């Protein structure tokens, strides 16, 4: 401790908190009556108050008491589609009247509807439309955010979406990870020519996206109303040749072996996975592929097929939780509410839900420098107006985040 202090004052120190470190393979690593200190955006100390010197003020000019409130790592939303134009509230009404998601999509609604509205907006208008959604997630404790393209479905508009996603991060002071989802749906101009569109994705779009440096990963929608496993394989092979990691919308509506396919390519994650079979779970476990649960879509679609939670636990597959924020099937603006849904709908424990939005969500994005509170990690953390980790899942809605820190700097309430 003295050596750290001698190297210069820390940038900040929060004392008298309940610290959920997320260190370890299970549980949340709760340390009662703890403190967290940081310097240059990195954590210097995250441990019991008893390990501090008698005069904490000697370590930092900025010492704040959390008054026994809970401190956790900043939440990580590892699956969103929040950059889009318009909305699809009318489809919500149609589903309530009995129309299925597949029927709406085949009738020209669904993703195709959002593509049309997104293409109509320039960068500035799309940024303005997406900004409130991003602020809502930050207000709920999110410090790292994944945003997918997939509502452009041509090179110009896919790049536009990725640019806007990056701008959201830079303007709001959070870290945004971008994912190219060109294989999200077949655009209307390629109707009946699905393989030709896959040719375009692999031969023109993916190389240009990789060259632009705007994408951190590649995703696809492997489903009966999306792309076949063979077509998805082509996209993944191209991504691998370009050095981009992959993840997959897998087995949401049917079991096409999507989870196993993602694992075959060392996928960062397989997402949705309501219909994934045991072979898929075993493949994910062997590959270290994260299972990303998306209870918002399960809820909005009134689904009844639960993901294979018991099998994921049995085989040690890391479980993450995300909002899947999108205009059609999960207009969910709260990651904490997604945590509650994961508990109530999927029977996750509150500890599993918190791990799913911190350390396991970081793993789903290929990140190793956040999601836990330990020396050397990024100083991304949240002070909550609650005292115990389970409270984050217990309360349904409401504003619980008191302060959100990114790299040790408090975000304004709320940036923008």
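Q: What amino acid sequence fits the structure above?
A:
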């Amino acid at each position: 401790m003295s050596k750290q202090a001698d190297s210069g004052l820390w940038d900040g120190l929060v004392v008298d908190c309940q610290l959920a470190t997320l260190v370890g393979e299970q549980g949340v690593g709760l340390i009662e009556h703890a403190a967290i200190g940081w310097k240059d955006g990195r954590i210097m100390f995250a441990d019991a108050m008893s390990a501090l010197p008698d005069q904490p003020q000697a370590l930092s000019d900025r010492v704040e008491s959390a008054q026994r409130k809970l401190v956790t790592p900043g939440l990580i939303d590892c699956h969103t589609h929040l950059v889009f134009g318009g909305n699809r509230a009318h489809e919500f009404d149609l589903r309530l009247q009995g129309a299925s998601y597949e029927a709406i999509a085949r009738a020209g609604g669904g993703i195709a509807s959002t593509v049309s509205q997104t293409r109509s907006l320039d960068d500035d208008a799309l940024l303005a439309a997406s900004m409130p959604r991003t602020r809502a997630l930050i207000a709920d404790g999110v410090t790292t955010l994944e945003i997918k393209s997939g509502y452009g479905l041509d090179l110009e508009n896919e790049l536009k979406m990725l640019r806007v996603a990056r701008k959201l991060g830079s303007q709001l002071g959070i870290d945004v990870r971008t994912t190219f989802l060109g294989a999200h749906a077949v655009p209307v101009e390629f109707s009946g020519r699905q393989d030709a569109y896959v040719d375009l994705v692999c031969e023109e779009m993916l190389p240009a996206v990789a060259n632009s440096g705007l994408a951190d990963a590649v995703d696809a929608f492997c489903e009966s109303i999306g792309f076949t496993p063979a077509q998805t394989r082509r996209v993944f092979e191209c991504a691998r040749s370009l050095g981009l990691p992959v993840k997959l919308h897998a087995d949401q509506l049917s079991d096409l072996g999507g989870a196993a396919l993602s694992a075959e390519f060392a996928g960062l994650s397989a997402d949705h996975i309501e219909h994934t079979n045991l072979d898929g779970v075993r493949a994910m476990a062997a590959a270290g592929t994260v299972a990303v649960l998306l209870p918002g879509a399960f809820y909005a679609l009134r689904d009844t097929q639960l993901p294979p939670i018991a099998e994921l636990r049995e085989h040690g597959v890391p479980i993450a939780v995300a909002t899947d924020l999108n205009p059609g099937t999960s207009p969910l603006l709260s990651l904490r509410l997604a945590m509650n849904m994961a508990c109530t709908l999927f029977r996750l424990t509150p500890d599993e839900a918190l791990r799913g939005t911190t350390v396991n969500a970081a793993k789903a994005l290929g990140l190793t420098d956040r999601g836990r509170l330990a020396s050397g990690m990024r100083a991304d953390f949240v002070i909550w107006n609650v005292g115990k980790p389970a409270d984050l899942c217990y309360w349904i809605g409401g504003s619980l985040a008191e302060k959100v820190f990114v790299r040790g700097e408090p975000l304004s309430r709320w940036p923008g």
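Q: And what stands out in the fold?
A: The CA atoms of residues 251 and 388 lie 35 Å apart.
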